[in-house]
Each structure stands twice: as C-alpha cells, then as structure tokens.
Amino acid sequence: MKRNVIAILIFSLHQAVFSNQLDFVGVDEKNKSYNLEFSLEKTALIIAQSSNSPFSISLEFKETSMKEDFDLKQNYPIKNIKSSSSENNSIIEIFFYEPVSWQKPQQIKTENGIKVLLSLDQNKKIKKMTREAIVMIDAGHGGRDPGAIAKSHNVIEKDITLLIANELFRTLEDTDGYKPVLVREDDSFIYLDQRYQKARQNSGDIFVSIHADAFSLPSVKGAAIYIWSEEASSNSAKSLSTKKVSSVRVDESDFDEDLARSKYPEIYKKKKEKSLQLGKKILDQLKRDPYTHLHKKRVEYADFRVLKSLDVPSVLIESGFISNSEDAERLKGKPGRRMIARSLFLGINNYFKENLEDDFFIYDAEGYLTYTVQRGDVLSEIAIRFGVPVMDIINTNLIRDEAIFPGQRIKIKI
C-alpha cells in the first residue's frame, strides 16, 4: 500500500512539474515592428538565442508541453515559425528572410496565465541579428520598507537607492546597446521574490541590487559588493544579509528558482561564476572612485535572497553606511551618488566587454560606445559619467566650442 501511495505521489509531482502548457497565439505587426505572442500557464525558464546562419531565433521553454507541433508560413520578414519537443521541453524556431533587431521574450502575468511576447524590428541597416543587453536595476527597499534610517543625517536608504538607480538607468538608457529596466520606479513596496522574478519576466541579462546600510558603530563606512552564497564570507556579511530579509511572497504562477537550482546545477554554476566576474568588474571601478572608501576590498558572499536567481548573474552593492557622517554626506550629494552610478556603469560595461554575445551591438566597428545627448547635458558631466577626459570626447567627435545639442550622437572610447 505504501509503495502505491509513493508511486502516486511521484506521478503527481511529475505531472505538476510538466503541466505548463505552451500555445502559439499569433503575430501582431505595426509599422515594421512585430510581436510574436505565446501563452503559458505559469512563468517558465526560457533559453533564447539567435543565429545568422540561417537568420533565426530559437526559444527553448523548459518543462513545458504543446498539444502538437506546427510549421507555419509567415509574411516578410518572417519565413516561418515551427515547433518541436524534446525531453519535456518545447522548442520554437523563427526563421527570417533577413536579419532583425530583437528583444529577449517578456513574460507578462494576466488573469489567464502568462503572456509571452517576443518583439522584433525590421532594420535595413543591420547585417546580422542584433539585440540589446537587458540590465535589471533594483533600488533596494521602498514603500513601507524604508531600509536603514539615519535620523541625525536626515537620510533614508530607500530614497538614496532610488536616486542612484535612476542615475545608472539614465546612462544606460542613452547608450546604444543597453536596455535598462527599473525593478521599482517610485516609492513602492516590492517583495524580495518579486524583485528577482522581474528579472525572469524581463529576461534580464544581469541583475544589480543597490543598497546603503547603517551600523551601530558610526566609524564603520565604505562600499562593498556581494554575491549570493548560503554561507557568508564574513560576520559583517552575515549581519547584513540577516537585516535585509523582509516579506516574501511567491505566486503559483511564478518560476520556482529554489527548485530549479537543484534541477539545473550546470546553469546555476555558470550563473555564480558570472556573478563573481560582474562583482569584480564593479569593485575594480569602486577602487578608482576618489569619493568612495571601500568597506571590503574583495567581493563578499552573503545569503541575500534577492540574488538567488537560477541563471541571471546578480550582485548587490552596499554604497555606504549612512550611519557614518562621511558616507551620509557623500550619498546625500549628487556628485557622490553619480560616482557610485558611474562605477556601476563602467563595471557593467567591462563585464559585457568580456561577455559579448554575437547579437549584442554595444560597441561599433571601431570599439566606441555611442551616447545620445539629452536636453540639459553638458560635456563635463558626460565626461564624468563615462570616466573620460572632456578633450577626448571633443577630439573624437570634432566638437567646436564645446557645443552639443539634444539628439546628437557622440562616440566615447572607454
């Protein structure tokens, strides 16, 4: 009898894991932009990649099933869309007549399940498949969770983190090849699990969580970088991760990151390696920041739940201790926050420089970044944001009298 019960339980669990049905909904076209829509019962692990031989995009939906395979002819620039199944995974392949710009699929919660959108754009100027690097920016705390509070300095962690996040967002948003996504855009409360679930839903390439802390000893100061581990690398790291634990909520439609880590150990191992690489790149830039003292001179490990994604390289930065008067004043001022954002941007950029996928277009053929000038920009601030001399920008772009205008695209070598 016991054996029968166990067998039934195992069968039920197996069915529950693989009951996530995938359906193709259709293609919506508007002004040479296309949305391919699919539906799922719950959020899935999707492996997305493109190829130039032939021009195509492959989407592998892990632990899903389809009613039947299909091969559908489509209108230009899409040749056809076909599906197949392999070992409890569903594979969608989209073939094109010419290269397109594409974005990794979004998974959007609806009343009826999950809507999956793959966005494409026709672009006659490109010669290969291209996409932007998706950077998830998580401003720690928010809403009813203020984080650390330094009353004597009139500083609240949730405010500082959002200001730094917005500064980083702007630099990435105006630089070709990047698509930044803010986990929170205002003073709203977001559960820890919902934060890394947003990285899953937006197919983030990396995840950066921004924080500032307080300590009982006002002499403690400086910035530090953390990646996830069950075992903390120091007592201070253990103390910080314990304080950062807040409300947790997981919906039935969410992807189970905890279960997936044991199911896909190779994917998780690669994520940890990439997280360490990203953390080191950011730390290298913080060491060059004249405004910021380092609390820890190596990447630290701690059990921060927000970093526990299966496959998205994830780091957490403690930008300083607002209980320390020097750090509090630094983070209250725009120059200090801008330097933290700059270290993050340059570290992120150096990470992608060593992890350039074939379809990224962060750098042009000559190795330059391209920045689009915004209203209110001045050359000196752009130079600070990218960590380069003003004269380098002037000479590279043949700028006269330091005159720039909104919409101007300038090349920057870093």
Mind explaining what this structure looks like?
- The protein is an alpha+beta fold and 414 residues long.
- It folds into 3 domains: 21-122, Immunoglobulin-like (Sandwich), CATH 2.60.40.3470; 133-354, Aminopeptidase (3-Layer(aba) Sandwich), CATH 3.40.630.40; 369-412, Roll (Membrane-bound Lytic Murein Transglycosylase D, Chain A), CATH 3.10.350.10.
- The chain is 31% helix and 29% strand.
- A hairpin with a 4-residue loop joins strand 14 and strand 15.
- Helix 6 (265-287) crosses helix 8 (334-354).
- The longest helix is centred in the middle third of the chain and has 23 residues, at 265-287.
- It starts with a helix and ends with a strand.
List keywords for this structure.
single chain; 414 residues; alpha+beta; Immunoglobulin-like; Aminopeptidase; Membrane-bound Lytic Murein Transglycosylase D, Chain A; 3 domains; 6-stranded mixed beta sheet; 10 helices; globular; disordered N terminus
Percentage of residues in strands: 25-35%
Report the CATH superfamily of the largest domain: Zn-dependent exopeptidases
What is Rg? 23 Å
Structural class: alpha+beta
In the CATH scheme, what's the topology name of the largest domain? Aminopeptidase
Number of individual domains: 3
The CATH architecture designation of the largest domain is: 3-Layer(aba) Sandwich
Main sheet summary: 6 strands, mixed
Basic shape? globular
Low-confidence stretches: 1-17
Strand order of the largest sheet: 16-13-17-20-18-19
Question: On the 0-100 scale, what is the average pLDDT?
Answer: 91
CATH class of the largest domain: Alpha Beta
State the end-to-end CA separation: 69 Å
Number of strands: 22
Q: Number of helical runs?
A: 10
Helix % is: 25-40%
